[in-house]
Write a structure and sequence with these properties.
Elements: H1 2-19, H2 22-36, E1 48-55, E2 58-65, H3 71-89, H4 94-100, H5 107-112, E3 118-124, E4 127-133, H6 137-154, E5 158-160
Parallel strand pairs: 1-5
Antiparallel strand pairs: 1-2, 2-4, 3-4
C-alpha cells in the first residue's frame, strides 16, 4: 500500500511541477492577455505600450502609441482610458477582470476601497493616462499589486517606469 501511495505522490508532483513553473504560466498568461486584449481594449496592443509608474500615493497607468503620429491609435487609447477611468471611479473593474481574471492581484483591494482612491484621466499627445491616488494603505497596496500583475501579464506590451 505504501508503495502505491508513494507512486501516486511522485506522479502528482511530476504533474504539478511543470504547471507551477513561473515562466511557463507567465508566458501563457501573457499570450492570453495579448490575444484577448482586443475584446476589452479598442486599440491595437501591438501598436501601443502600457507604462506603469508606482508612486508613494498610488500610481500612474499610461498607454501610449509606439508611433507618435498614429492618430487613430492615440484617439482609441484616449477614448478607452477616459471611459475606464470613469468606471474605476465607480469601483467598476470589470474590464481588467474580463481580461486578467477576477483573482488578479490587487483588484479585490481596489474594488473594496474604491471610494478611498482618487482616479483621474488626462489625455497626452501620444495617448493618455490614469492617475490613482490614495492615502489608505490597503488601497495603496491594491494599486501596487495590480500594477505589478499588469506588468507581468502584459509582458512585452508593458514596462515599468
Amino acid at each position: 500500500m505504501a508503495v502505491s501511495v508513494d507512486r501516486v505522490l511522485v506522479a502528482s508532483i511530476a504533474v504539478l511541477v511543470p504547471l507551477g513553473s513561473g515562466s511557463a504560466n507567465a508566458q501563457s498568461q501573457q499570450e492570453h492577455v495579448h490575444h484577448m486584449a482586443h475584446e476589452v481594449m479598442p486599440f491595437d496592443v501591438s501598436k501601443t505600450l502600457h507604462v506603469f509608474m508606482m508612486t508613494e500615493s498610488g500610481g500612474v497607468q499610461r498607454v501610449v502609441a509606439k508611433d507618435p503620429n498614429d492618430s487613430q491609435q492615440i484617439a482609441l487609447v484616449q477614448q478607452h482610458l477616459s471611459f475606464e477611468a470613469g468606471r474605476f471611479q465607480r469601483g467598476d473593474f470589470s474590464a481588467p477582470e474580463a481580461l486578467h481574471g477576477e483573482d488578479m492581484p490587487g483588484l479585490k483591494e481596489m474594488r473594496l476601497n474604491a471610494r478611498k482612491i482618487k482616479i483621474s484621466y488626462a489625455p497626452r499627445t501620444d495617448g493618455g493616462e490614469i492617475v490613482f491616488e490614495t492615502n489608505d494603505p490597503h488601497a495603496l497596496t491594491g494599486i501596487h499589486r495590480w500594477f505589478g500583475a499588469q506588468l507581468s501579464e502584459h509582458g512585452a506590451d508593458a514596462k515599468a517606469q
